[in-house]
Design a protein that fits this description.
Blueprint: E1 2-4, E2 7-10, E3 13-14, H1 15-22, E4 26-30, H2 31-44, E5 51-55, H3 62-69, E6 74-77, H4 80-88, E7 96-98, H5 105-113, E8 118-121, H6 124-136, E9 141-146, H7 172-183, E10 188-194, H8 204-219, E11 227-229, H9 247-258, E12 264-267, H10 271-274, E13 278-289, E14 293-298, H11 307-311, E15 317-319, E16 330-334, E17 343-347, E18 358-361, E19 382-387, E20 390-395, H12 400-403
Helix pairs in contact: 5-6, 8-9
This protein binds ligand LLP.
Length: 404
């Protein structure tokens, strides 16, 4: 994304033109950025040749998953819906891992029927259920067991998953108990240890700690795991002053961890693949003056992009056309929804905006559209993909008649 003649552009297309042609709010994805992210991710971990399973929860658009699958990536899914979507997009079932704390019997049956690579289980009860279903189907099912390494990912508490108070995975003691249980369960083949300590991680040290915990556990058991699934969580730069994850150090730590082991690494990245490849374009409907600030009321709202309301997340917000004139008042960018948290960002010294101007909310490709809802009975936005200079509609704007 860059300004050309004061107009914000993406892959040589002006956001202003896109907004006028396709209306707003609209998610716009850049194929070239997506490609760059995938190639960078592969390059960063080339020396350990991992299986990379895209975390579908970060973006469930079938066209995008299809493009991602063309690079040989698999999928990390957390519901039967995501599994169906990944399969529809052409992801190889042998590259699908199924995560999540509450898989239902029907979901387990579906996963077994589709012969996916792994069901990553998170409790003894769940493994008992997988064993029961597998026995009825007379199958041996490969599973992973998610460890809760009690490691602080040093990220937002709401997206931290690896501490003992979080619902995810099992603790060390239960881990060994489950290994023993699996040894005696004829229809289960425990061949993966999985961990995922959280999301939007910008410091490699929590990953190093996590690897140490896993290493210690592996030393204490004779059980051999074919795969170690390290989850995702690699953070991106949402703001100019944000830290950057040091992939080199993370990769080095994994290499060290893998010494004298014959395991294959699985990753489940979401945000680092699609996050900065998507922008939400929105129009200023009204500007309302209050004493200390101006409310910039947008046609996008928390139902379209939930991250700021849910986590206090900040997304860089830019004018689509640069005027150079700075506003004297602070701007608070809000949506039309009847919730005080329906607010995107507060910015001092933003450029002066007029009603009907467009703004771009950046880095909205991950957990943007996938977290959207019909709250206030608002329709879901349009999604566009810019690829090879062409703009393609990859999901139509929802119509009211579809939801009423
Ligand atoms: N694997 C598992 C088991 C996960 O729970 C997640 C994310 C991922 C992989 C992918 O993580 P990523 O590479 O995208 O960080 N809605 C929040 C993020 C929630 C993440 C949930 N789990 C947000 O908007 O920041």
């Amino acid at each position: 994304m860059k300004y050309i003649n004061k107009k914000l552009s993406i892959d040589k297309h002006y956001f202003q033109d896109i907004a006028q042609k396709y209306n707003t709010p609209t998610y716009c994805y850049s194929y070239s950025k997506l490609r760059e992210n995938i190639l960078n991710f592969k390059k960063n971990f080339k020396s350990i040749s991992p299986l990379i399973c895209f975390a579908v929860k970060s973006n469930t658009n079938v066209n995008l998953i299809q493009e991602i699958a063309k690079f040989g990536l698999g999928a990390d899914v957390v519901s039967v819906g995501e599994m169906m979507m990944a399969l529809k997009a052409g992801v190889n079932p042998k590259k699908i891992v199924f995560s999540g704390v509450g898989k239902t019997t029907d979901e387990i049956k579906y996963a077994i029927d589709k012969k996916i690579l792994l069901i990553n289980a998170e409790s003894k009860s769940e493994i008992e259920e997988i064993n029961r279903v597998a026995k009825i189907k007379n199958k041996i099912v490969k599973i992973g067991l998610r460890l809760n390494p009690n490691t602080d990912a040093k990220t937002l508490s709401q997206i931290s998953t690896g501490k003992k108070e979080n619902k995810f995975g099992v603790n060390e003691k239960t881990f060994y108990e489950i290994i023993d249980y699996c040894k005696n369960s004829k229809n289960i083949d425990l061949n993966c240890l999985s961990v995922h300590i959280g999301s939007q991680i910008l410091d490699h040290k929590p990953y190093e700690k996590m690897l140490k915990v896993v290493d210690n556990i592996l030393k204490k058991t004779s059980h051999k795991f074919e795969y170690i699934d390290l989850g995702g969580g690699m953070g991106i730069k949402y703001t100019d002053d944000s830290k950057k994850l040091n992939y080199k150090k993370y990769n080095l730590a994994i290499k060290k961890f893998l010494k004298n082991k014959k395991c294959k690494i699985i990753f489940e990245p979401g945000r680092s693949i699609i996050g900065n490849a998507g922008t939400l374009i929105t129009k200023v409907i009204y500007i309302k003056d209050s004493e200390s600030k101006k409310f910039i009321i947008l046609d996008a709202a928390m139902n379209d992009l939930m991250r700021p309301a849910l986590y206090g997340a900040i997304h860089k917000t830019l004018p689509v056309i640069k005027s150079g004139k700075v506003s004297k008042k602070t701007y608070e960018f809000v949506g039309p929804i009847c919730e005080t948290t329906d607010k995107f960002v507060t910015i001092k010294n933003f450029q002066e905006l007029q009603e009907k101007d467009y703004v771009a909310i950046c880095d909205a490709g991950a957990y943007g559209m996938s977290l959207s809802s019909n709250y206030n009975l608002r329709t879901k936005p349009l999604e566009l993909l810019i690829k090879n200079n062409k703009i393609k509609i990859i999901r139509k704007r929802q119509k009211h008649k579809e939801i009423i």
